[in-house]
Amino acid sequence: MKIKFFNLRTISVALSTLVLTVSCSDDDSISIEEEKQENNRWITVAAASMGDNPGDGNGGTLIYALNSEDAKDPTKSIAPFDNGLIVPSNRTARLQSSEDGNTIFNISYAGDTGGNYTKYEVKGRNEFTRVGSEINISQYVGSAPRWVKLFDGDKTGAAVYVSTENIIDDKGTDDVTDDTYVRTNAKIGVVTLDLENSLIKEFQEHDVALSPEEEAAGYYISRIDMPVLNEAGDKLYIGARVSKVDPLTAERDTDYEILGSKTIVLDYPSLLNPSVITSTVGIGNTNGYRSINAFLYNGSVYQANQADPNGSHILKIDSNNEYDNSYIFNLDEALGVQDAYILAWRPAANGKAVIAYRHAGSAEGVAGAQGFFALADLNAKTAQKIEAIPYDPDFYLFQYQGFVVDGTEIYLTQAPVGKNGNIYVVETETGEITKGAELVNKEGSHFIGTF
Asked: Which residue in 25, 30, 80, 416 could disulfide with 392, CB within 3.0 to 4.6 Å?
């Protein structure tokens, strides 16, 4: 078995560096060079500051790195909001990291620096050294691109966008206008980026259509995100959200039947020959939000869906580049809840995964619905809430992004909005939970994961 992780997402604002005293208790006399030892890897914690409202994350994103041994130590304490490095992000940054944790990648999201690609070597604490040259991809996919790193040995990133236009047939005469809605065209753009040499590898645009029946009813692809490579490395899958207009008025339709989950398939690396595949198991969206939404495991791609009226599913795309509709993994059924919604997730190489989710029973907190973590098994199609992690009505996971996978262990952050919390480490093979370093929070802010 082997697993590659495909993530995603978009990041930005004004870059500022905070060279402040380190907050890791008991470590002030230890040099950064000594801090990273053999058999340790860096665990970078991402923290999102409040903008105007608690939990909005619009006040900037900060990162702070500690080694895995300290991350597991509950006597350690870190304060990224006081001592972290601010990364470019006009809104909440969507970070990517190398597989070994030694590099952080960033493409600024919106603002004056929107579309700028930069990368940093992780040195520990608040020391991240910018390496390589910058490149701006806004001319290809706009200043607020949605992007992920393809896990091909940390070589390639992929950014995407979609624009839509209603096609109207004017059948009127000189005196009478009789506009008839035909369809909504979705034009997608996809660019691949050489992460090592800061070069554009390929760029293509395509008009992507649904079936004639779906388009006549007003359905169209309205958002795309989370590209992922298949095992053969010859197809790129892109998650999609489908929306609808009323064909009688061409106005947005808000009450309609949701279609089967869809994914756009492109040849790779050429990015040519777009097609759309549809699941008959799950319905709803596959573009995710800010976290990686699809992963390669054991020869197939496993993909979460969202906004499924029957509860989120983990869907499976096989090596034939089609959905495997015999694979049925429904989170409602697995957890015994209603309206489960997968917010973020990540599997380890053994097929065991940690899932961040909410459901119909979630309390309404200061920033939105309360979140929970579950440990799932892709092979057994089972999931169980992780009870050892404390929960709070203000434990908000909608913007959650990053999990660190180190062997069979998965690192995550737990802290309600505006309250202190901890790093937790899930040993996916045994289910053992380790409470790690304390995370010092600040008013209205929250943590969005580990990298």
From this structure: 416
**Assigned superfamily of 3-450:** YVTN repeat-like/Quinoprotein amine dehydrogenase (2.130.10.10)
**Per-domain residue ranges for the chain?**
3-450
φ/ψ (deg, to 5) at 175: -100, -25
Contact 292, 400 (CB under 8 A): no
Is 27:35 a contact under the CB 8 Å cutoff? yes
Q: Residue 308 corresponds to which tokens in the numbers above?
A: 């499924």
Enumerate residue ranges in the chain where pLDDT < 70.
1-38, 171-178
Q: Which of 99, 79, 123 is nearest to 437 (CA)?
A: 79
Model confidence pTM above 0.85: yes
Distances (CA, A) of 13 to 57, 93, 106, 417: 12, 8, 11, 22
Contact (CB, 8 A) for 239 and 226: yes
Q: If you search the block for the tokens 């490149």, which residue do you land on?
A: 135
Question: Are 61 and 89 within 8 A, CB to CB?
Answer: yes
N-to-C CA span, the chain: 23
183: helix, strand or coil: strand
**pLDDT for res 109:** 83
Distance of alpha carbon 53 from alpha carbon 63, whole angstroms: 21
Determine contact, residues 338/332, Cβ cutoff 8 Å.
yes
For residues 392 and 70, give the distance between their C-alpha atoms in angstroms, rounded to a whole number. Answer: 25
CA distance 131 to 34: 22
Of the candidates 310, 271, 307, 450, the residue with the CA atom closest to the CA atom of residue 373:
450
Residue 17: what pLDDT?
A: 36
Give residues with Cβ within 8 angstroms of 441, minimum separation 6.
81, 415, 417, 418, 419, 420, 421, 447
Name the residue among 156, 216, 165 with its Cα closest to residue 188: 165
pLDDT for position 172: 57
- The DSSP output letter for 100 is T
Task: State both tokens at 380.
Answer: 């057994």
What average pLDDT is seen over the chain?
91
Question: Which residue intervals of 217-346 are DSSP H helices?
Answer: 331-335
